Amino acid sequence: MGLLAQMGRYEELRDQLEDVAEKSPEMVRGVIEWISYRSEYNDAENPLAVMEWADSQGLLEPEQRVRLAKLYLRLGMPDKAAVLMERGLYDRVIDPESENWQLLAECWLGVPDPARAAEPLQNAAELSGDADLFQRLGRLHLDLRRLKAAEAALRRALGGGAREARVWLFAALFMQARLDEARQVLIPPAHGTPRKPGTAR
Description:
Blueprint (H helix, E strand, L loop, with lengths): L1 H5 L3 H11 L4 H17 L6 H9 L5 H13 L3 H13 L7 H13 L3 H15 L2 H13 L3 H13 L5 H11 L3 H7 L16
Helix pairs in contact: 2-4, 3-5, 4-5, 5-6, 6-7, 7-8, 8-9, 9-10, 9-11, 10-11, 11-12
């Protein structure tokens, strides 16, 4: 079986795994783990036939499902990746950590279906507290013309120190015709109390 994998003959390997799955389930799981690991770290690998079969048989562990989603993305099938990740995350089959929510958002953006990317990106940002993720979320809401949601996300980004958050928050306020607030956003906060003219240092 290892030779078939090294030769890239994954459809033949799948057929062999089907034949021995009932008698040697642990061996099959070991082969699947090895193949899924190789698929993540070797872009030349395309074990889709084996991975999809394993998924249909309920043989994939949570991390292997994530690897299958990444394989779908690499092969230009973001819709399949999105369905797999969404089902796994909301059914708690896949660990609902920030990185996996980010992956789901990337899947929907690749479809493209940016509206469906917003909630997983929000989840990723909330779990991690990452200012750059809040900035991405704010920009996504801006693209969708969800201006209040964009403002809220970008204020979180600005508070966390995201480099471009100030400019995007200005845009969100400007698009709401809140011009005075928009101008204030572009003025960096003063540090300390300004001295009066002629006051000694």
